[in-house]
Design goal:
This protein is an all-alpha fold. The chain has 15 helices and two strands.
Length: 340
């Protein structure tokens, strides 16, 4: 007979795989905020907080992209190029073709999802290593971004459509606000809730974890490895595409180099938040914390007048340490199981 004290919610919480690291990095986030707040009181100002959250939102979205793929035991190097492709296709359709913004977004989304589906099929069906497959599609997507407007950045997206049509698009994705909070933040929040539910409360989510934990065991259990892998890469392409819309709305034009180095940001947000590079483990709440740490570091180091080079060195070092700790912990856990 189970005693009342045997059922402790806190123990159940820490029993969830990856939750211990989420708690740890949350503590680290709080410490960082306190440090930067002491160094510069303006760090906690209302204006800076809102701008910081708007800066974190796209990083969270590409963090979700990479988290889904990493949990399946793969990696997506095409994220940044899909962001750039999204920005250039959408902006070219609007600035050169005079296409209605919302029609342009649908066409762009279809193109980006095609890249996601190709990634999933190349990895799961054709058995290509994910590093090679997504390295190839990364180059192809960047090439498409460059060809979209004949190797030029686009003109203003309002040049043909007019200010009213374009302003609606720009307000929706970047400049508009609801209840005093920028729409970019709301978009990231809604998509996080949706994909967190998909990952944690549906059969698709369970299959994603199963494939990442042990591909052969998942296949023997009746899981369609190909379909599951394709779904993970589709989520990655979808979120990357939305980030492209945000960048297009922010700039009011398309830039061929949009999304450069976003692969690093995506990996940083995911692994700092506890998503395992070895697959089968990770929580999207951790990705929120990981993206927040990235944003706070960038914002706080900027307030502290730290050079861009040092900011990159610090963030890159944190990513390496996070992955190293994950490998050590996972390898140690496997060794204990073998000994038993």
């Amino acid at each position: 007979m189970m005693k009342i004290n045997d059922h402790i919610p806190l123990k159940e919480l820490f029993a969830i795989r990856g939750m211990a690291q989420v708690v740890t990095v949350t503590f680290g986030l709080v410490v960082l905020c306190i440090i930067f707040g002491i160094l510069n009181p303006n760090f906690f100002s209302g204006e800076n907080t809102l701008n910081l959250l708007r800066q974190i939102a796209p990083i969270l979205l590409i963090g979700i992209s990479q988290s889904y793929v990493l949990i399946t035991g793969n990696i997506d190097l095409s994220i940044g190029s899909v962001v750039g492709m999204s920005t250039m296709i959408a902006s070219t359709l609007m600035s050169k073709g005079g296409v209605n913004p919302w029609i342009a977004l649908l066409i762009t989304m279809a193109a980006c999802l095609t890249v996601g589906a190709a990634n999933g099929l190349l990895v799961a069906k054709c058995k290509l290593p994910p590093f090679i497959a997504t390295l190839g599609t990364m180059t192809i997507a960047r090439g498409i971004a460059q060809l979209a407007n004949n190797n030029y950045n686009t003109d203003s997206i309002g040049k043909i459509l007019g200010d009213e049509a374009v302003q609606g698009f720009r307000d929706f994705f970047y400049y508009g606000s609801f209840l005093g909070i920028y729409n970019t933040i709301w978009i990231a929040l809604v998509l996080w809730i949706a994909f967190n539910f998909l990952l944690g409360r549906t059969r698709t989510g369970r299959h994603i974890y199963a494939v990442g934990s042990n591909v052969e065991a998942a296949r023997l259990s009746g899981v369609s490895v190909t379909a599951t892998t394709v779904k993970a890469f589709l989520v990655s392409a979808f979120c990357s595409c939305v980030v492209g819309f945000i960048l297009c709305a922010q700039a009011g034009m398309g830039a061929m180099d949009a999304g450069n180095t976003y692969e690093l940001y995506a990996v940083a947000a995911a692994v700092i938040g506890g998503v395992s590079t070895l697959g089968g483990q990770g929580l999207l709440i951790g990705t929120v914390i990981g993206a927040s740490i990235w944003g706070v570091l960038q914002n706080g180091l900027q307030f502290a007048n730290v050079a861009v080079a040092w900011r990159n060195i610090i963030i890159g070092s944190i990513v390496i340490v996070s992955v190293l700790l994950d490998v050590i912990v996972r390898t140690g856990a496997k060794s204990k199981k073998v000994m038993k």
